[in-house]
Design a protein that fits this description.
147 residues; 4 strands; 44% helix; 6 helices; alpha/beta; 4-stranded parallel beta sheet
């Protein structure tokens, strides 16, 4: 079983969207994976998923009830096979937390779609539809890698 950790700044918008979309995808397609999400910051620790993400997931019948923001730790590097950040700033902060990516586990999500771009933070853009589309593109590529 592969273990995947999705990471963004606060763990209330992008990374939980990726977490719950991937859980749904894995269930529907029979992928043997364990999935969580976390933040690089402490700003939202303990808070629930942003209403925009909850609303977008609900459009597809996906619940994220009970999810609370948590901060990534150095130990997560040992626990997970993939540590997937949403943007370049997240990657820098992930590397600050883990020290060095000696086992090449750290990726940006859109790398799995053959792109180098960042997934925009809907906290600032208010565009949860665009964030969803970008995340789905990355997850579809990740799904193929996991096969």
């Amino acid at each position: 079983m592969k273990k995947i950790l999705f990471v963004c700044h606060g763990n209330i918008c992008r990374s939980p969207m990726a977490e719950f979309l991937m859980k749904d995808m894995a269930k529907r397609e029979g992928l043997d994976v364990y999935i969580e999400s976390a933040a690089t910051s402490t700003e939202e620790i303990g808070n629930g998923v942003h209403y925009g993400t909850r609303r977008k997931l609900a459009e597809y019948g996906i619940s994220c009830d009970g999810k609370r923001a948590r901060q990534m730790t150095k130990r997560d590097y040992d626990e997970f096979d993939y540590i997937i950040g949403m943007d370049s700033w997240n990657i820098r902060n992930i590397n600050r937390i883990i020290g060095a990516d000696t086992h090449h586990k750290v990726y940006k999500l859109l790398e799995f779609a053959g792109e180098n771009g960042d997934i925009a933070d809907p906290w600032y853009t208010h565009n949860f539809d665009e964030t969803y589309d970008d995340i789905i593109r990355g997850l579809n590529g990740l799904k193929e890698e996991l096969r």
